[in-house]
Amino acid sequence: MTPRLLFLLAFALPAQDFSKIHIEKVAGGFTFTEGPVWSRDNYLLFSDPPENKIYRLTVEGKSVFREASNGANGNTFDSQGRLYSCESKSRRVTRTDAKGKIEVLADKFEGKRLNAPNDIVVRKDGHVYFTDPAFGAQADNRELDFYGIYHLPPRGPLTLIAKTPGRPNGVALSPNGKILYVADSDDRLIRAFDVAGNGAASNERKLITNIDGPPDGIRTDDKGNIWVTCNNVSVYSPDGKFLNKIDFPETPRNLTFGDADFSTLYVTALKSVYRVRLDWKGSVQY
Is the pTM of this model over 0.85? Predict the structure, then answer.
């Protein structure tokens, strides 16, 4: 199969079956849902930052995974099954191992406290990327005079990738881990960076602009298409062309692919969690 045909298939795929999808509400009654991530142990985790909890959703129903989460927002797993969380209230990034031990990975940059880490992704080789905006009351206690996108290598200090004029939000990697995508909620765009083998990010560019509403969480599928939560869930090709959208009963805030085949889209939307079965797969970052 030629590269051109592969590209055309990736471009056409999301436009094929959206008329056939079924949106299912799987949990509700929350204050503000965020940070969904699928575990290889077959459950979904998601945050409710105002309620200060992380929840677990299984086929049996929902339960509290962590009390006193410090306002955890974005979550992700690494290849070892460890959970990474952006704790907005404690203004830090943590990693939790299988035994429940919590390790602080980042809470300061150049001696000043982070603003309020928001979303996070880990490359398969352990390089961590996260955003650090400040929303609402978080802006009142800032020590840094900028919004940041950060890189934390497996070994070495925290480094600043970029200072952004608008607040960075969702973050994702391309399936091969060579492109970093970052949502900018204020400017309603997606930035892209090239990522080297050593994890360093460069060549900042505006890949997607004029998004329908402030973009929040983002993910990629296994063809490299970019899924963005905004006023809906919008899907873009790897080169930034709009492909299609899914409207939900509530405004989507974040999303992840899950289930054993990674062909279910889970969407956190204000007070609820929804899922949609798809005919294609999400990219697996761990």
Answer: yes
